[in-house]
Design goal:
This protein has a domain at 1-51. Helices cover 53% and strands 0% of the residues. It contains 5 helices and no strands. The longest helix has 21 residues, at 2-22. It is elongated, with a radius of gyration of 30 Å.
């Protein structure tokens, strides 16, 4: 069994090295290419795995129903002018208030 695992690991390592070189050998991204190579090797070893039925669909839990998303109800409020920060947060003197109101 150890022989098969070493062949498996070697093929992943070679695939990762080839993809890394084809991408221009970017420094510090070797781990990313190893992960991609592992995923691709899994596809090669189990090509029909993606065709298996979804276990969540095969055994639904009626006590935990999935709610439908209703787009229009989930949009929330549209911002109005007062939501955009047009209020002055610090209190003003009477003179500054008069000047501010005149400029509007």
């Amino acid at each position: 069994m150890a022989r098969r695992e070493s062949v498996h690991d070697r093929s992943i390592r070679l695939r990762a090295r080839r993809m890394w070189r084809e991408a221009g050998s970017p420094e510090g991204r070797e781990d990313e290419y190893m992960e991609r190579a592992r995923e691709l090797q899994a596809f090669v070893e189990h090509p029909a795995a993606g065709l298996l039925p979804n276990p969540m669909v095969a055994h639904p839990h009626p006590e935990d129903p999935v709610e439908e998303a209703e787009l229009m109800e989930n949009l929330g409020e549209f911002p109005v002018r007062t939501d955009q920060g047009d209020r002055i947060t610090a209190p003003m003197t009477k003179q500054r208030t008069r000047d501010f109101l005149r400029r509007r």
